[in-house]
Amino acid sequence: MRYASSIVDTIGGTPLIRLGRIASGVEATVLAKVEYFNPGESAKDRIAVGLIDAAEREGLLRPGGTIVEPTSGNTGVGLALVAQQRGYRCVFVVPDKVAEDKRAVLRAYGAEVVVTPTDVTPEDPRSYYRVSDRLVDEIPGAYKPNQYENPNGPRSHYESTGPEIWADTEGRITHFVAGIGTGGTISGTGRYLKEASEGGVRIVGVDPVGSIYSGGPVHGYLLEGVGEDFWPGAYDPSVVDELQRVGDAEAFAITRRLAREEGLLVGGSSGMAVAGALRAARSLPAEAVVVVLLPDGGRGYLSKVFDDAWLAEHGFDT
Ligand code: PMP
Q1: Could you tell me if the CB of 239 is within 6 A of ligand 1?
Q2: What cofactor does this protein call for (predicted)?
Q3: pLDDT tens-digit map of 140-183
Q4: For ligand 1, is residue 50 a contact (CB within 6 Å)?
């Protein structure tokens, strides 16, 4: 019989899918690594296993313990999946800009959700970083994986995402493109691909306009899960050869096209990554193979990027 011994064993092994229509006019082959094929519907399932395995190994998480983490939703889903299978309780702290649909998903997996305001500084006692620190102090047996600083996040991508892309492209990948949130995906996957290709793969980071990584003035934006207003330890800027800045409007327009033209219902950060990939790919020759990572599915954003009234309200075209 062929079966997985638990849902956790189905994490990884996501497909590469050619972007035919959206990349028309581009000579290079543009392939999407579609991470919503993971059971929790995002790339974050990969790091959830890595973070929990490491915490168990290091004795930081003991039977009956509680996982407390500030998360925009996807890391929470991954952690909730793995934690429930191993008997841990989960408390997640999410900023209020995260869609209610996403919070409901976390609760459905059995996690507890604490909502915090987005428009405060990271140092503010109400910020999602500070609230999670307080909960760790208050709850006995609590452990905070801290995806922003934990090296086991990028390591998960170094051990799974990178090798999968290298094997599936038979070593022919020339460019890897990903958005930067904690930086774990691009740092871990990028490092693996650079090592495997002996420096032959160019790593392209995509950053929302308003985020710190690409050096512009830091201000608010609507894209979720990408960009930051501080430098997390999970991000290794030395891996990144090139940065593309993409604004909300361009990212959302491509996100909608991915659903309508490629049958890929994905989140806004995927549209952002594809926008960056198309810019990078436009000048490349036919032999180039560009792999762009699509971090999550679009069902958590139906009342946002896929809602005409929401787009119009924020001044974007539908
Ligand atoms: N997109 C979404 C929707 C995310 O939740 C995240 C994770 N914060 C990312 C992209 C970026 O991934 P990473 O944290 O590995 O840089």
Answers
A1: no
A2: pyridoxal 5'-phosphate
A3: 999 999 999 999 999 999 999 999 999 999 999 999 999 999 99
A4: no
